[in-house]
């Protein structure tokens, strides 16, 4: 995916296509490449936006779920986006949830996939080990149903991050922030139409998490994808895009007229 990374004010982001904004938030070890198939598919009908979250650029006190929510709020205000379809994967879903609860006015719909916010098991019982490539490879493979999806390129990217002492400190800070910032019953206040797309084999935010989101968020619908882990938009992009397109198309249709 060779799209131009734009710079506006202090924000770096990808923006492709025209139409209603479809704003995508990546996870803790995420990157633009996570959304390559999604961007390519939806840029024909929507303005697809992927901000680069400053995972390692904020000071340690703002390297939190709340700190990133404030960053996204400023980004949306500066760019004057409105009627946004807000999609988040993993930590990005958590940030999206917090944003909708705090600033619902510009959000038209919410899409969550493998989102934290109620429960997540991203680190398991251990935290990233510096210099241990095999550990990082195994952790990366756990993201997917098919371990082969954890390519050498992807593992190398994660290894480079976890080999930096300051970045590891910030990763741990973020992971702990996600656990502390458990939204629980709060998510029942969300009024936007919400789509939940989950991997049936997600071990980081298991299927019971999706069912709990579905139970708590009033106007939500849930779809499971078999043989799929924590990042459905990467592992099964065709099926993911089909479910998302159907959801967005329904939102475009005018409400039925009551006679």
Automatic annotation (TrEMBL):
Keywords attached to this entry: Hydrolase
InterPro entries: AB_hydrolase_1, AB_hydrolase_fold, AB_hydrolase_sf
GO CC annotations on file: membrane
Alphabetical list of Gene3D superfamilies matching this protein: alpha/beta hydrolase (3.40.50.1820)
Pfam families in UniProt: Abhydrolase_1
An annotated Gene Ontology molecular function: hydrolase activity
Domain of life per record: Bacteria
The keyword Hydrolase is assigned to this record: yes
Entry-linked SUPFAM superfamilies: alpha/beta-Hydrolases
Domain annotation AB hydrolase-1: ranges: 21-117, 185-235
Keyword Hydrolase: yes
PANTHER family on file: HYDROLASE, PUTATIVE (AFU_ORTHOLOGUE AFUA_2G14860)-RELATED, MONOACYLGLYCEROL LIPASE
Name of this protein: Alpha/beta hydrolase
């Amino acid at each position: 995916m060779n799209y131009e990374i734009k710079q506006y004010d202090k924000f770096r982001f990808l923006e492709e296509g025209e139409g209603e904004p479809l704003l995508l938030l990546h996870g803790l070890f995420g990157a633009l490449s996570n959304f390559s198939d999604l961007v390519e598919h939806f840029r024909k009908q929507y303005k697809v936006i992927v901000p680069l979250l400053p995972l390692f650029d904020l000071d340690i006190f703002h390297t939190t779920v709340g700190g990133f929510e404030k960053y996204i709020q400023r980004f949306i205000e500066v760019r004057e986006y409105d009627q946004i379809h807000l999609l988040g994967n993993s930590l990005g879903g958590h940030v999206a949830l917090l944003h909708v609860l705090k600033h619902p006015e510009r959000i038209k719909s919410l899409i969550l996939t493998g989102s934290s916010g109620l429960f997540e098991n991203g680190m398991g019982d251990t935290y990233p080990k510096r210099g241990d490539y095999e550990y990082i490879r195994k952790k990366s493979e756990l993201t997917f149903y098919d371990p082969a999806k954890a390519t050498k390129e992807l593992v190398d990217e994660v290894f480079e991050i976890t080999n930096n002492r300051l970045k590891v400190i910030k990763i741990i800070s973020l992971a702990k922030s996600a656990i502390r910032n458990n939204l629980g019953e709060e998510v029942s206040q969300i009024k936007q139409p919400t789509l939940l797309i989950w991997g049936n084999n997600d071990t980081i935010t298991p299927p019971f998490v999706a069912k709990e989101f579905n139970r708590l968020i009033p106007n939500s619908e849930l779809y499971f994808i078999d043989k799929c882990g924590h990042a459905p938009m990467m592992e099964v992009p065709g099926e993911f895009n089909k479910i998302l397109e159907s959801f967005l198309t329904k939102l475009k249709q005018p409400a039925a007229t009551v006679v």
